Amino acid sequence: MKNFLFFFTFLFFSFVDSVSSENEFKLEDSINNVNRNEKNIIRDKYRNPLKTLTFFEIQRNKKILEISPGNGYYSEIISHYMRNTNNYFVTEYKYPPVEAVKKGQEKFKIYFKNNQKKFGEINTIYFQEGNILETKDKNFDLVLTFRNTHNWLGSDTAFNVYKSIYDSMKKGGILGIVQHRGDEKMNKNFYNGYVKESFLINFIEKIGFKFLEKSNINQNVKDTKDYKNGVWTLPPRLVLGEKNKNKYLKIGESDRMTLKFIK
């Protein structure tokens, strides 16, 4: 009887310790991580990481893939939140389409390798030619992509990207997309970095995903979407330099759709 009570007590406190330890990992703490790049922190007011990642149902017990992480705005947050799980992955182009992408990938790898203790572990899977994901890692519970779809549509590889994402996911897995939102009255379905929301939802559903819901977390009603130089006129790019800079800073970053699908 004593042995049984001891064993039960041991299991109980082991469970409590495990739950307490897991509760120490809060998404808010990763967003408030003082080691984040200051330029990224400034963008939080436009990108709303807490609300966005919560909407996409991020959890530490999930296997997560971020597609084309860019300069690592979300990677800083997610890698810190997912630290010690070995369950956070990002993509990299095995054959970068342009030199700028190649340099960006190298910069990303060096930054997160040198700062692993400040953030966390990041695993990599590769896009093969034609933007098709390699198949060595699968069964993702959550796949995220932020402001990338216009590039894939422009290079006519969006179907390859989203079909290979679909194939890499568990049944019941969540796909979260943030994308510059175009005017529904645009003559084209995508142009100058903007994409029609109705078009994108229909496009993703044709791949096999089911549309769950959308959110206006990242909407910006000040964005007129009619700039000659496209979405890159706005911050953070500000391609016109000092020309009308204050005007575009007052507008802020682009109006963005925030869409959630399920496999």
Number of E-type strands: 10
The average pLDDT value, as a whole number, equals: 93
Described by the principal axes of the CA atoms, the overall outline is globular
- What strand order characterises the main sheet? 4-3-2-1-5-6-10-9
Straight-line distance between termini: 49 Å
Looking at CATH, the homologous superfamily is: Vaccinia Virus protein VP39
Helix share of residues?
A: 25-40%
Beta content:
15-25%
Q: Strand count, sense and closure of the main sheet? A: 8 strands, mixed
> For the record, what CATH class applies?
Alpha Beta
**Second CATH tier, the architecture:** 3-Layer(aba) Sandwich
Judged by helices, strands and strand pairing, the structural class is: alpha/beta
- Provide the domain count: 1
User: Are there runs of 5+ residues with pLDDT below 50, and where?
Assistant: 16-20
Rg, Å, rounded: 20 Å
Q: Which series of helices and strands comes N to C?
A: HHHHHEHEHEEEHHEEEHEHE
Description of the structure:
This protein is an alpha/beta fold and 263 residues long. The chain has a single domain, classed as 3-Layer(aba) Sandwich (Rossmann fold), CATH 3.40.50. It has 11 helices and 10 strands. It has helices at residues 2-23, 27-31, 38-42, 44-47, 49-55, 73-81, 99-114, 149-154, 158-168, 197-207, 245-251; strands spanning 64-67, 88-93, 123-128, 132-133, 140-146, 169-180, 190-191, 194-195, 210-215, 256-262. The chain starts with a helix and ends with a strand.
